Amino acid sequence: MASNRTFTMIKPDAFEAGNSGAILKMIEEAGFKIIAVKATQLTPELAGKFYEVHAARPFYADLCKYMSSGPIIAAILEKENAVEDFRTLIGATNPANAAEGTIRKIFAKSIEANAVHGSDSDENAAIEGSFYFSQFERIS
Ligand code: ATP
Ligand code: MG
Question: Which long-range CB contacts under 8 A does 92-97 form with residues at least 24 apart?
Fold first, then answer.
């Protein structure tokens, strides 16, 4: 059975551009409940740990630098079929390929500075949520 939670980050480009409120509004209007949320900034080391799965990719060093370049918003979201529905809401990694009306189509600047993160599986949603939040910080 699909889990009902996913994890997201509003990335530095979208935070810096002042789009956090508009993005959170789209997320809520799509039916997601915000279970935990905080603004924070990653160090390059923590960004590297979060995206460790991409360590062998050519864009990894730039990704760590970019993800630690400014504040982000991290959040755990709840909705039926959360992981898949959220990936649909954010659109393709490269905004040039993202569907009309998706968050990345509207707000992303490039394939790297693509406005938001969305977990790609139930397992990773749980791991990534725990990376930022302890249980007592969440709504039950
Ligand atoms: P995310 O995991 O952030 O939700 P994603 O699952 O759509 O994004 P991944 O393949 O997991 O895409 O890549 C993680 C992130 O690495 C991308 O969101 C983007 O910021 C960056 N990235 C991915 N591919 C490239 C690339 N070819 N060039 C530069 N940056 C890239
Ligand atoms: Mg990914």
Answer: none
Does 137 fall in a domain?
no
Residues known to be catalytic: 117
Q: What is the rounded CA–CA span in Å between residue 52 and residue 54?
A: 5
Q: Is the CB of 59 under 6 A from ligand 1?
A: yes
Ligand 1 near 63 CB (within 6 A): yes
Cα 118 to ligand 2 centre (Å): 7
Which pLDDT tens digits describe the chain residue by residue (140 residues)?
A: 567 999 999 999 999 999 999 999 999 999 999 999 999 999 999 999 999 999 999 999 999 999 999 999 999 999 999 999 999 999 999 999 999 999 999 999 999 999 999 999 999 999 999 999 998 888 87
What's the domain range around 44? Answer: 5-132
